[in-house]
Specification:
This protein is of the alpha+beta class. Helix content is about 50%, strand content about 15%. The chain folds into two domains: about 160 residues, Regulatory protein AraC (Jelly Rolls); about 110 residues, Orthogonal Bundle (Arc Repressor Mutant, subunit A).
Length: about 280
């Protein structure tokens, strides 16, 4: 996790990056300055006072960024793993590609957000380096609540671009795991999502690879690992129960899959999670 003010960073050099991904959720409130941000293949439009949201493993790029004022908060999913927000945060549509513009805030909304971001920043940078995860998460939840409200207002006053195949895939993925469809359908398969989108499996994977740098199967595996971690840490389930819950036919298949993706066995990860210090 990190929290910083843009004006505290180097403002004299224009910064640009090639398309890349990070492992963090990012909440960014900015105003003034110059430059553009690409999220997926969409270039955000700008106005005085905008709020940007990025989720882990999504493609972004910066071009000519300089002289920004505002705040940025970076949150690793592990910070939320033992909190209900770990699941809820994925349901907010503004973290995905489905929303094709930043959140534009008016002066009253901007003042509310500055107060929240500044309080979060001060709590995180407590002089004794002691902070409460519960307090920080409470601020994040409050911010997301305001974002939900403000986006609803914005949808009524600004044109919203139609969903792309990418955002439809994200919606299907979220729906599949939110409804725990793997318990009835078994392991999620590339063919399932391709058929739902009226695409061939190879075309869907090529499309996702072009936009996100990952194939359909990689997206599915990443999401399975996220769900597995949440179950291992947030409930008193055995490794076998988690394996069956996620649609694995045999626990040993799950254990092998989990260790291949994380370098930890499920039991070792579960034990470490009990004492992890965020």
């Amino acid at each position: 996790m990190d929290s910083y003010r843009y004006e505290d960073t180097n403002q004299t050099v224009k910064r640009s990056t090639e398309p890349h991904t990070t492992g963090f959720y990012r909440l960014s409130l900015k105003w003034g300055g110059e430059g553009t941000i690409l999220y997926g293949r969409t270039e955000y439009d700008y106005a005085e006072g905008i709020w940007l949201f990025f989720s882990p493993n999504q493609v972004m790029a910066f071009s000519g960024v300089a002289h920004w004022t505002g705040y940025a908060i970076l949150v690793h999913p592990q910070f939320l793993e033992q909190h209900p927000l770990a699941r809820r945060i994925r349901q907010y549509p503004f973290f995905g590609y489905a929303v094709y513009e930043a959140l534009h805030v008016n002066e009253r909304e901007k003042a509310t957000l500055i107060d929240l971001f500044e309080k979060f920043h001060q709590e995180y940078h407590h002089p004794e380096a002691v902070f409460s995860a519960d307090i920080l998460i409470s601020y994040i939840e409050l911010m997301l609540g305001y974002a939900d409200r403000y986006y609803q207002r914005q949808f009524q006053t600004r044109e919203v671009v139609s969903n792309s195949t990418l955002s439809r895939f994200e919606h299907l993925m979220n729906d599949f795991f939110a409804k725990r469809q793997y318990q009835q359908l078994g392991q999620p398969k590339v063919e399932y999502f391709a058929q739902a989108l009226n695409l061939s499996p190879s075309y869907l994977s090529d499309l996702l690879k072009e936009h996100t740098g990952k194939t359909t199967l990689t997206h599915i595996h990443d999401r399975l690992i996220e769900e597995a971690k949440l179950l291992l840490l947030s409930q008193n389930h055995s490794v076998s129960e988690v394996a069956y819950d996620l649609g694995f036919e045999y626990p040993q298949y799950f254990s092998r899959f989990f260790k291949n993706k994380t370098s930890y066995s499920p039991s070792d990860f579960q034990k470490a999670g009990k004492s992890v210090r965020v």
